[in-house]
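Aim 2 progress update. The chain analyzed this quarter is reproduced below.
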Amino acid sequence: MDLPMRKPWYQQLYFWVVTAIAAGILTGALWPSVGVALEPVGTTFVNAVKMLITPIVFLTIVAGIGGVDSLRRVGRVGVKSLVYFQAGTLVALAIGLVAVNVFQPGAGVHAHPGELRLSGSAAQYVQSGEHQSWWHFLTDIVPSSAIGAFADGNVLQVIFIAVLFGVAMKAIGPVGRPLVEGINRLNTTVFKILHYVMLAAPVGAFGAMAFTIGKYGVSTLASLGHLIALFYGTSLFFVIVVLGGVTALMRVNIFRLLRYLREEFLIVLGTSSSESVLPRLMTKLERLGVRREIVGLTVPTGYSFNLDGSSIYLSLAAVYIAQATDTPLGIGGQLGLLAVMLLTSKGSGGVTGAGFIALAATLSTVGTVPAAGIMLIFGIDKFMSECRALTNLAGNSVASLVVARWERVLDVTQVNRVLRTGSAAPAPAESARQQATVS
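Predicted structure tokens:
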């Protein structure tokens, strides 16, 4: 059996995305005004992808539930996913707390809280966060309007509607089977539309990167470089050591998995949005051998409940503000922050300024760290959002493998074959060995 021919490197999407990112950085650095003017190019591409996210999440979850042999299994997969998500969030938050206490990037800043003035978007985010309680994500799950959940792009609410619809469709038995077939066909059509949209990924990455560099400049990076470097380093440690350790237990190489998803990582890097590759990620995981019903349940819910990068950011940012404003914050206070962030970090996927809103909600709930300190890191948030999105993507990829393995439906041999060769089909020599064994 011949392996499928790979496209030449210059025809692959990752090459054009890398080229576009490099061109965007140069444009923003050399001609800042041009870079700022290119903002609509990046936001239009992201919006084009986001308009398909809620339909894809709905159709995928409904199809996944419809394809499961029993509702009991749906509940089991859902519970296992949430257990893993919460464990991952706890580890990410704890690692962030350890890193910020060891390196103390805010020590020596000595910013006076009374002199910090909230303005612009930062003030709006803090205002939104102050009106949210630690339990808001529980009440926000239920939408006031089914259509409104799709119109607002609220992924968490769409998940709630999709689960109800899928369970009801499964419960009515044979009457619901035509609906499952129709959902699968509609899903295929929407994914085809997404394929057309993704052809513009290099253009979107160019516009988004040019705007970021042109608007904020390299000088912004240098001014708070210590905090940015600590965040990227901590996230890299989490991906390689923590997630790498998890995949190693499954006998899967984390570096091969990251390489397999390189196009998705590059698109996220260029657009600062992990949502831009949600459908592609689900397709890639299915090619690895993860069953569609598991991918359909774990990936969309992971985008609201499994935000490892956002969790690291929350713990780093909260303690950094305390250090920078000379606010006393002992072990007890930090553990209190961690407990609140276990909840405030949930349900923020797809919301503009979600990281800042969650941070403001945490600081407002605890009350020991001044929320106005958010202004200290507002200027570099755009540079940190890329790392949040990249880490979230890695975490959700591993989560699907873990749940599939937990359900004992993951063929590790096939996973490694795809990661090694790019094809799910056995190599000729391996196929011959398998046939000889059967004979």
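The two ends are 19 Å apart (CA to CA). The chain has one domain: 12-425. These observations will guide the mutagenesis experiments scheduled for the next reporting period.
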